[in-house]
Automatic annotation (TrEMBL):
Domain Reverse transcriptase, first and last residues per copy: 94-314
InterPro entries: DNA/RNA_pol_sf (IPR043502), Rev_trsase/Diguanyl_cyclase (IPR043128), RNA-dir_DNA_polymerase (IPR053134), RT_dom (IPR000477)
Cited PROSITE patterns: RT_POL
Organism: Phytophthora fragariae
Signal peptide limits: none
Pfam families: RVT_1 (PF00078)
Protein name per its UniProtKB record: Reverse transcriptase domain-containing protein
Amino acid sequence: MSSRPKSAEPKPAREERFAAQSWESLKASGNPIFETAREFADVFPYKIPAELPADRGVRHEIDRAPGSKYCVTRQWPLPRDRVKAIDDVIEGRRQAGYVRESISPHSSSTFYVKKATGGWRIVYAFNKLSDATIPAQTPAPRKDMVLDSMSGSVIYSAIDLTDGFYQILMRESDIPLTAVSTPSGMLWEWLVMPQGLKNAPATFNRMVSHVLRPLRDFAPSYFDDIFVHSRAEGDLSAVEVHVRHLRQVFQVMRENKLYANLKKCVFCAPEIPVLGCYVSKNGVRADLEKISSICSCPTPTSPTELRQWLGLANYLHKYTKDCAGLIQPLSSLLKKDAT
């Protein structure tokens, strides 16, 4: 669902940290957030509870363009084992309260796609519905504003929220639009936001921003990331203030049934990856892994390859003095009259 930029943290480092981080490792490392995080262990479940989500004041809405017709995609046949697998998945969604039987005039087909890691993933063909849906105009958070809000802080945490699918209620009048058929001849409609709907990332971002608005001075969010930053206040150390801030964030998450992936969170660190760069008390720096990738690219041998490399090198613009002047000789080679 998420359309956020990928983490700036080098992949090997991310994999090593994600594989090692657990309640045990947090405790063993003496992380000051351990006791508070354990108090809110329900916010970091191994598996999201299969239940209808809370009404947080934001629902997923589907506004169709004027003159849109019924959105119907024919259900094509699938092998018997796939049909059984789809029925089992839908039954689990029904028991959780996510879907109900439908008599909607709309119908999107259900099928399976192969996962890159092996196995199969259920998919709904919402193509026609997406084509008829008016794009949401909810603005994405500005990266520069998120970074600027963190200046002056000295300790940081990054909380990775689990995907928003099935965690946001549908607007009641739009439920029939979400109807999906199955190869076994059933029609179901979604009471929660399913995978594949247009504007789903915008809805999730709007919901997270809505519930965290009272904490935005120290906990800005960007889609499914929450960045918590703190500094010393009065007689309280920066760590004490940070633990207090995290407690407030955890409390809001608990009240609104928002969940995070413990393995992908960073707590009480002097530096964290934020939207393609690193942030610390010293400011913002470039990701060394990205710089290495740019430097290791083969020498361009055509205008297309040069254009691609310049696109990559544009990442350095914010971190390099007179970057535009430095790359100008290369950019000029792309002009039609260049020799």
